Amino acid sequence: MTVHKGACLCGAVEFKVEGSFDSFYLCHCRHCQKDTGSAYAANLFSHSATLSWLAGGDSVSCFMLPGSRHNKCFCKVCGSALPSTQLAGLLVVPAGCLDTEVPTLPTAHIFTASAAAWAKSADSIASFNGLPD
After folding, report:
1. To which protein family does this belong (predicted)?
2. N or C: where does the chain have the smaller number of CB atoms within 10 Å of the terminal CB?
């Protein structure tokens, strides 16, 4: 069985996911833009994998946007995005919180009609391996 481990930025929360992911979406909806403060959310989805909190489970808080299916779990200490089981039968794991290698390439970009205009040119601008001088 595949096992993935992850943690929040401050290390207060640690978790493991046992099982495989069904899909990996880059979501450009306005909810995900607000939620991440970025152009899109990168989330892995599974209907069969299981989530276990290894440390700091009491530091996990979750928010469900009223009138929607949009939800987010996060560390109460540092605010880092964490896995969510808020939708029955579905595990959603923010790809960036995994410490193990993400096993697959993204399946698709979704909700691209709401994509941020400034993000569409991201591939054509300068890039640096670290902070530029």
Report:
1. Belongs to the Gfa family.
2. C
- 3-state SS, residue 98: strand
Q: Which residues contact 69 (CB under 8 A, 6 or more apart)?
A: 87
For the segment 2-56, what is each residue's pLDDT rounded down to a tens digit?
999 999 999 999 999 999 999 999 999 999 999 999 999 999 999 999 999 999 9
Give the tens place of pLDDT for each residue, 112-133. 999 998 887 777 888 888 988 8
Least Cα distance to 42 among 25, 57, 56, 58 occurs for 25
Give the C-alpha separation, 92 to 96, whole Å: 12
CATH code of the region 3-117: 2.170.150.70
In this prediction the pTM is: 0.90
Q: Which strand (E) or helix (H) includes residue 62?
A: strand 60-64
